Amino acid sequence: MSAQNYDIIVIGAGHAGIEAAFAGAKKGHKVLLVTLCLNSIGFMACNPNIGGTAKGNLVKEIDALGGIMGKIADQATIQVRMLNRANGPAVHSLRAQVDKNKYHMLMKSSIEKEPNIDLLESEAAEILTNENKQVMGINTMLGQKFLAKAVIIATGVFLNSRIIIGEYSQNSGPSGFLRSERLTDSLKKLGLPLRRFKTGTPPRVLARTVDFSKMEIQEGEEGLPKFSETSDFEVQNSHKCYLTYTNPQTHKIILENLHRAPLYNGSIEGLGPRYCPSIEDKVVKFADKERHQIFVEPEGADTDELYVQGLSSSMPFDVQEKMLHTIKGLEKAHIMRYGYAIEYDCLDSQCLLPTMAIKGWEGLFSAGQINGTSGYEEAAAQGLMAGINAALFIEGKEPFILRRDQAYIGVLIDDLVTKGTSEPYRMMTSRAEYRLYLRQDNADLRLTEKGRQLGMIDDQRYQRFLEKKNALEQIRQMLDKGYSPKSVEEVFKEKGEVVPKGGIKGKDILKRNKINSEDLIKIDGEFAKFDRNLLKIVETDIKYEGYLKKQEHSIKEMKKMEERKIPEDTDFLSIKGLRKEAAQKLDKIKPLTLAQAARISGVNPADIVVLMIWLTKNCDKKK
Questions:
Q1: 86 torsion bin: left (phi>0), alpha (psi -120 to 50), beta (else)
Q2: What's the pLDDT at 138?
Q3: Which of 409, 429, 452 delimits the end of a domain?
Q4: How far apart are CA 546 and CA 357, in angstroms?
Q5: Which of 23, 37, 435, 603 has the fewest CB atoms in 10 Å of its CB?
Q6: Same domain? 24 vs 162
Q7: Are both 97 and 190 inside the same structural domain?
Q8: What is the model's pLDDT at position 1?
């Protein structure tokens, strides 16, 4: 039987695999998307939401580059909120509660309609390579052979995965899906560094058994921006979420049963996420806290199943029931699905280049939770970049790499490949040193031009982008208009601002702490013709102008080091003057720039000076 040929093969149709497949297809390449089960396409095995702190920024950036996550999330939204409003705009993050089944079905339908993607339910068992360490394709468990110029591994948490609930364990993927059993052996044969990580999920309960009157209602918000610039509709705010809390009785039950907790009795080998711990971990590590937040969230519009956010656990079923029933509003809640922990094989992310290519193997890429991350959004961002770079590799073009000052995606990937991670990695605003510059509201302004150059943004989308830029420029020009003290007096007094004695420009009005763009509309009704979210972008730029200029200066300084390229074939171990530890770390990571080298743990400023001198003597002269 002859093998079928493709340009790109993507293994896994989770959030990373989907973006990778669509990126390759948009670039005009024929893609084979292989998944263990068609029912798991874009499946949300954990929380039924997209976005959130820092994650919302990732989704906006994915959309700005031509990805699909934001577009589908908008269509499947049942509630939307803006998080961190009490803090500055640098940490504002859009978060959408989504209908998880609708999201899955919309993703599956989108893939089926894409002519450049062939979808196949099968298990990838082996990565095929040749003696020159070039990827040739894959073999499946059924004995099928598919050839390709590039292969992207996006297997999520399915590699040799194991579900654990108390004393019970089962070799299984999340939510009862099949696991991948053979691919780990193939990765070991390629000499790739593997490790064991763990994540988990909380119980799901039946809505009619919950007393919502004892909980705090969490309403959605109207008038918020969408994740996708292509969404011409208002997202749904049809469902409520609810807030309740654990209490000392909940904690007592957990502590009394710690000997039965897989996390503490040695049943779990994998390392779990620091920033999304199980409830038993929270109770032990934060013993001084009398309570922890529990959010009760709908899983979809056509189901009465509720997700108990904050109660992730692998405790035995009877302990889960007891602790759940101590919580206000959940005293009589019926558990439909028990919480569980899941262990799985993943790669050491330091075996990757910033392109998402695996070092030492031509045409082999990796994206998503197999790289040690947690979260749908982190996975999708990696998938998009892997898909783009696999396509560029096939085309013989320079790879596409985002710097830390250009996008949260750049921060995410640089952290993974340069610093590595010893536990499931989660994106947070605190990881981004230029977070005021990398706001979610300007993601398209930062990245759409790049997406257009890559061939990821079509004419219609690009025209919208140009219209938005034009509207922003009109707003900025109008803000140069002057206003008399009398015309601003009413609003200024209402807001407790000192009325200026002379004329004042619109942009100076917005510099006042207590004045916002809504107040500006009251002063000058001409501004009402613009979208409120556009006015807010300009307002933020004006109010934080000083801080933004400082960040721009820092970015310029960093770019000088980013522009100092390091040849890929550099033998760091032979560079005289480098400390042994630094040389070993540099040789392992193989940084592409001087800036990346400086971010490696164990490489100090003196080592960078040695490296700079070596580059000047050995590389600059060759130019």
A1: alpha
A2: 98
A3: 452
A4: 39
A5: 37
A6: yes
A7: yes
A8: 57
